Write a sequence for this structure.
């Protein structure tokens, strides 16, 4: 297995001429998967709108956030093999930057969210240079430390309201045509971010860069020997995997109307996104989607069910244990094992 | 001046108990390369054992310590065979998730049974007062017990047959297996020991502070910090790491707002990880 | 376990009731059945339930020639904001809730308000004293509790009487509500000529107050004001006692109000709490039960004395009921207008909402009392010690 990937890397590096960007795009456009993603995104965006079902929208909105988190996390865990336990820090920090820009400086929501994404990506790059020297469990712990340190800092950071956080007034939604419209716009944007995250995952998976990451994930030393620039690749993927979660955080907390440190840097949410990834299957692009939807539906159901609401954690935990012990490839791993031909269609 | 001293002494007393909690985490980590994410939940279980013991029998909480150790050991062995055995040697993510799922189950069951209301274990021991600053008897007692248990663990690992087997498996599992050591049994024993330590630290913490089903999370994070300071897989270092953390916090609090403590704590954590990945007390490796 | 069974039983009853009802009025809310706010939220939930059962037993709410039986739909918000919006949307769109009660705690209220305002649903806010939420231009949010700014005003007045030169230490939980209270009170204290000896906040999960108490001792403070919610407040009180912090006066938010606080034993003695309501108060209600009747009724049903969360829950229901009856309609717009006009006294005391758009819905008439745990004939009891005209015992200082 190690050999196969490493060889492929070597081959790819040696043999394949660099495609021009346009050519590459054309080549990708001929494959079915990106279109599948686009269609899925459109369906998600339009169905609740056309059906005018706000309840469905709220449920899909959380699912879209989860998909975004899980699929970007997949870039680190699935591809590069680095367990980022504190991934929620991107989401929370992005939320703070976006909400702050949108309220204090009255920046347009889209611009504020993009700014949040870029800033967080940049910060992640800097942090990455430090903590990516660590491997395995040490890295996982360091990411927890970063999340907790930043949470503690924000709790004491008065311009962002300290522990109280930032409250949005109804007026904040006026530029978007009032709260009713505003929430729909937030929803569409979040669904778009979800779609873009999936396309990003796909693009990376099918690129030379992605192959390099997979090599790092399997055997970092061997990858380095074979010429994969591991430190640079790792720093880039850590930074890239922070961009969309930060954008999503900005949109999500703007939509929520309030951001406070405890909900922004909630370590449990971080672990939940790992659970979703495992549920659906790491190293695949479709996996995080399936995992996130399954998880959101399950939690949503358990929470409102009279019978199970007190045991939702127990059930979710038992389910996770069963997956880890017996189906470590998650849903997609199981499916691909059953129907190998599906690999060509569902990445 | 005396205020700073009082603050440091307090830090050391509580730090010793945190050190004991971290010892459980670091033992498991060092022996089988598993980060036990159910550590916090297990600490809470220890708290509840002591709570029910004292409220049912009226006995002193300290008499419950041996029982908590025994129950914790038994629970740990069971947990090992259910959820950990299959993920030994697999990527770190697997063991993280296996133990985390256990954490969810324990907390879920605990919430259903005991709600999230706070519980108290009523203990009172005469404290020592110096110029208005009081060191409570419970703090002193808990720190003493923590040190005694830590010393016992050290002697156990150093001089007994099972202890040596654990160290052998930790340093090279294949070689140990070749020498006829039943490694899986030894691993389950080490896991049991780690859980027992977590339980007993929970029992001691319960005598100091009220607790809820959800209290485990913060002690687990503390244990991580202590573990990293003391060096992974280094039980003796864990105790020193705990005390060191107590000293740092004790020194910091008189000068900075208490709400800044976590920043110092986790900042130190990340910096130590990057700069001294083997821990500050790596030299004292048992 | 018992609580779960109890919920089931209530669920079964609620399920059976509509068969007899002419019309049903659905009120939706989330409660913190799990998570850190569980203790405070449950008391409030019991207040709601008692009100609902009383109303239904009396034939429902009568408005515009119809009578409405009350039905509750509630979900667990896990004491977290993550799902609050999803659940409130569900309450409004799927469960067709006509009126809403707020979740417990200021942060969750702000989150839920985005949804209730958007749909123009009247939301009675019981358990969100932070005032920021009401300064955001909300139109359908009505607050029953005295806001954070006035929370400790009574305690300061009392302190002024006992020791006008007191050095005060503010030690409070780092959450929206407690912080707002502490900061507002600090300003009031400075105006009153007190010395602020120390100001410290602690994170919500704090269990070890040792470092803070050492600082309190170093600061030489006479009085401590602050606290947060139940878990941390009771811990702080216990450790203040264990470490003999040498304070003459301790007022903590929320925690000492709970009857469970008595389990602290000696550590509880002398600790006071600003309270929205106490069972001993003697308000003469315009409608609904008197405080004494409510207390008796509540104690019979739940085998525990009501705190202000419970009374607040009940009064929230009463206020809503009154507004609906006055409006003669369940149209939210009309009910909101009635609430705007309202100036009444219930078992909970006076209720009047600000109508100024800048702080619409803020409570402006309700008054706080100060209660203190004292030992009486060997038993721990909570006595009202302020204001003077309502007190049942002298304050221990």
């Amino acid at each position: 297995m190690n050999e196969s990937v490493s060889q492929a890397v070597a081959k790819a590096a040696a043999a394949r001429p660099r495609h021009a960007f346009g050519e590459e795009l054309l080549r990708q456009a001929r494959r079915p998967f990106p279109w599948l993603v686009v269609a899925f995104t459109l369906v998600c965006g339009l169905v609740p709108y056309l059906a005018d079902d706000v309840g469905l929208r709220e449920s899909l909105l959380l699912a879209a956030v989860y998909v975004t988190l899980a699929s970007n996390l997949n870039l680190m865990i699935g591809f590069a093999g680095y367990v980022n336990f504190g991934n929620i820090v991107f989401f929370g920090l992005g939320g703070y930057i976006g909400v702050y820009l949108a309220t204090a400086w009255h920046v347009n929501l889209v611009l504020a969210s993009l700014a949040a994404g870029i800033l967080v990506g940049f910060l992640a790059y800097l942090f990455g240079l430090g903590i990516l020297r660590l491997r395995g469990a040490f890295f996982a712990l360091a990411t927890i430390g970063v999340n907790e340190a930043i949470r503690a800092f924000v709790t004491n950071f008065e311009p962002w309201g300290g522990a109280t956080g930032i409250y949005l007034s109804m007026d904040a939604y006026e530029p978007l045509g009032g709260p009713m419209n505003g929430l729909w716009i937030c929803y569409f944007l979040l669904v778009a971010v979800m779609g873009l995250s999936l396309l990003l995952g796909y693009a990376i998976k099918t690129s030379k860069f992605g192959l390099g990451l997979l090599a790092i994930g399997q055997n970092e030393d061997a990858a380095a020997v074979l010429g994969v620039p591991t430190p640079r690749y790792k720093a880039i993927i850590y930074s890239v995997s922070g961009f969309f979660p930060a954008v999503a955080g900005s949109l999500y907390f703007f939509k929520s109307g309030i951001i406070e440190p405890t909900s922004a840097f909630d370590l449990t949410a971080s672990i939940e996104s790992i659970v979703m990834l495992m549920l659906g299957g790491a190293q695949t692009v479709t996996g995080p989607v399936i995992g996130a939807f399954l998880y959101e539906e399950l939690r949503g159901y358990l929470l409102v069910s009279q019978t199970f609401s007190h045991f939702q954690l127990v059930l979710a935990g038992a389910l996770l244990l069963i997956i880890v012990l017996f189906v470590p490839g998650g849903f997609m791993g199981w499916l691909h094992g059953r129907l190998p031909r599906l690999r060509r269609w569902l990445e | 001046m005396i205020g700073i001293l009082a603050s440091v002494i307090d830090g050391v007393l509580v730090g010793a108990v945190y050190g004991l909690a971290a010892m459980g985490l670091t033992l498991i980590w060092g022996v089988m390369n598993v980060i036990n994410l159910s550590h916090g939940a297990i600490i809470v279980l220890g708290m509840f054992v002591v709570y029910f013991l004292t409220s049912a029998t009226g006995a002193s909480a300290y008499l419950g310590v041996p029982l908590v150790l025994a129950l914790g050991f038994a629970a740990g062995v069971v947990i090992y065979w259910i959820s950990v055995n299959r993920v030994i040697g697999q990527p770190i993510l697997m063991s993280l998730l296996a133990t985390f799922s256990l954490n969810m189950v324990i907390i879920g069951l605990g919430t259903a049974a005991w709600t999230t209301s706070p519980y108290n274990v009523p203990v009172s021991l005469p404290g020592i007062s110096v110029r208005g600053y009081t060191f409570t008897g419970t703090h002193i007692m808990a720190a003493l017990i923590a040190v005694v248990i830590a010393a016992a663990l050290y002697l156990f690992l150093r001089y007994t047959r099972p202890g040596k087997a654990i160290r052998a498996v930790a340093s090279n599992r294949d070689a140990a297996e070749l020498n006829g050591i039943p490694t899986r049994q030894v691993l389950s024993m080490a896991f049991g020991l780690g859980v027992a330590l977590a339980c007993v630290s929970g029992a001691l913490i319960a005598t100091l502070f009220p607790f809820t089903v959800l209290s485990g999370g913060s002690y687990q994070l503390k244990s991580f910090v202590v573990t990293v300071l003391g060096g992974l897989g280094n039980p003796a270092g864990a105790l020193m790491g705990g005390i060191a953390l107590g000293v740092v916090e004790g020194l910091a609090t008189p000068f900075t707002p208490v709400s800044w403590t976590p920043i110092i704590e986790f900042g130190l954590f990340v910096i130590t990880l990057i700069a001294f990945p083997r821990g500050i007390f790596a030299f004292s490796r048992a | 376990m018992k609580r779960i069974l109890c919920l089931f039983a209530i669920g079964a009853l609620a399920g059976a009731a509509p068969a007899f009802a002419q019309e049903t009025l659905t009120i939706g809310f989330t409660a913190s059945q799990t998570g850190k706010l569980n203790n405070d939220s449950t008391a409030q939930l019991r207040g709601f339930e008692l009100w609902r059962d009383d109303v239904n037993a009396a034939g429902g709410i009568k408005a515009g020639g119809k009578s409405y039986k009350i039905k509750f739909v509630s979900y667990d918000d896990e004491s977290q904001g993550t799902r609050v919006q999803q659940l409130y949307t569900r309450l409004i769109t799927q469960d067709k809730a006509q009126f809403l009660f707020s979740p417990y705690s200021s942060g969750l209220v702000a989150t839920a308000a985005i949804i209730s305002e958007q749909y123009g649903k009247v939301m009675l806010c019981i358990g969100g004293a932070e005032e920021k939420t009401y300064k955001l231009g909300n139109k359908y949010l009505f607050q029953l509790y005295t806001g954070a700014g006035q929370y400790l005003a009574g305690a300061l007045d009392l302190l002024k009487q006992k020791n006008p030169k007191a050095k005060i230490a503010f030690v409070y939980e780092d959450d929206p509500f407690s912080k707002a209270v502490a900061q507002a009170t600090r300003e009031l204290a400075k105006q009153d000529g007190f010395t602020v000896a120390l100001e410290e906040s602690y994170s919500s999960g704090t269990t070890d107050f040792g470092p803070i108490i050492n600082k309190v001792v170093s600061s030489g403070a006479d009085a401590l004001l602050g606290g947060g919610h139940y878990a941390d407040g009771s811990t702080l009180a216990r450790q203040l006692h264990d470490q003999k912090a040498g304070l003459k006066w301790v007022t903590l938010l929320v925690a000492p109000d709970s009857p469970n606080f008595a389990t602290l034993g000696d550590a509880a003695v002398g600790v006071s709490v600003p309270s929205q309501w106490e069972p001993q108060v003697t308000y003469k209600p315009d409608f609904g039960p008197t405080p004494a009747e409510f207390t008796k009724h509540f104690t019979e049903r739940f085998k525990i004395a009501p705190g202000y969360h419970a009374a607040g829950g009940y009064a929230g229901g009463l206020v809503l009921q009154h507004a609906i009856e006055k409006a003669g309609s369940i149209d939210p717009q009309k009910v909101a207008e009635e609430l705007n006009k309202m100036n009444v006294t219930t078992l909970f005391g006076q209720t009047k909402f600000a109508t100024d758009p800048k702080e619409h819905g803020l409570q402006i008439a309700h008054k706080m009392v100060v209660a203190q745990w004292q030992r009486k004939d060997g038993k721990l009891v909570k006595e009202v010690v302020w204001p003077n005209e309502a007190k049942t015992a002298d304050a221990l200082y």
Q: What stands out?
A: Chain A has one domain: 2-266. The first strand of chain A starts at residue 166 and ends at 167. The CA atoms of residues 75 and 107 of chain A lie 30 Å apart. The longest helix of chain A spans residues 178-205.
